[in-house]
């Protein structure tokens, strides 16, 4: 799940980025409205976490831009504007949720999970494929009831595959789920994660379509 964080306060941005990455989200952050708009147009994220008080552009203008140019992107406003009128104004103009500062980390993560489910990537907190179960709240996986020891990125690759059972996921699509802008990605990074997953999963659980990508077949 890719998140664009538009927040100019470095302390808040640092804290939110760390919390989101620890929870398995891929985070790209910008400190201004114009950069946010450019990012939305070039590579729309799944969720935009938007501060309204950006230095170069009002956040409401960014919200309107997002609704025009990235209509599938869910928008969570994260702001100090805590009046009822401000909340109503933001929601009426297309925001999908509204959280005021200061906020609790767990509440932010819970609201993002709701938006994630709304996108249709996880209809429930549990994803099941055969004997495999993924708990998307706890970021845990079990096979036949036994815990699977997965690294964060192994879990994210597996989640991307089982969320899209029967559909091919290209290497580029998987990389976009795991790495943010500017992160150096080894040419065989996805292949390494797939190799490690196959050692922990039943034979044939993940299929390779040579030159195309990977897929978990329908049971």
Automatic annotation (TrEMBL):
An annotated Gene Ontology molecular function: transcription cis-regulatory region binding
Keywords carried by this UniProt record: Cytoplasm, DNA-binding, Phosphoprotein, Transcription, Transcription regulation, Two-component regulatory system
Domain Response regulatory positions: 2-116
Residue numbers carrying 4-aspartylphosphate: 51
Main location as per UniProt: cytoplasm
Protein name: DNA-binding response OmpR family regulator
Record organism: Chiayiivirga flava
DNA-binding region: 124-218
């Amino acid at each position: 799940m890719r998140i664009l964080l538009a927040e100019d306060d470095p302390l808040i941005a640092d804290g939110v980025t760390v919390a989101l990455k620890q929870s398995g989200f891929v985070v790209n952050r910008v400190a201004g409205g114009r950069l946010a708009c450019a990012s939305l147009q070039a590579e729309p994220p799944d969720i935009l976490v938007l501060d309204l008080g950006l230095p170069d552009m009002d956040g409401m203008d960014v919200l309107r831009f997002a609704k025009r140019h990235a209509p599938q992107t869910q928008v969570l406003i994260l702001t100090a504007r805590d009046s009822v009128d401000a909340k109503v104004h933001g929601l009426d103009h297309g925001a999908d949720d509204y959280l005021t500062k200061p906020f609790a980390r767990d509440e932010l993560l819970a609201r993002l999970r709701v938006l994630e489910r709304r996108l249709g990537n996880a209809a429930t907190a549990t994803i099941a494929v055969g004997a495999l179960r993924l708990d998307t709240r706890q970021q845990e996986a079990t096979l036949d009831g036994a815990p699977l020891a997965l690294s964060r990125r192994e879990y994210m690759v597996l989640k991307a595959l089982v969320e899209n059972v029967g559909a091919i996921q290209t290497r580029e699509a998987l990389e976009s789920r795991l790495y943010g802008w500017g992160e150096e990605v080894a040419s065989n990074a996805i292949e390494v994660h797939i190799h490690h997953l196959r050692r922990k999963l039943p034979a044939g659980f993940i299929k390779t379509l040579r030159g195309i990508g990977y897929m978990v077949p329908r049971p």
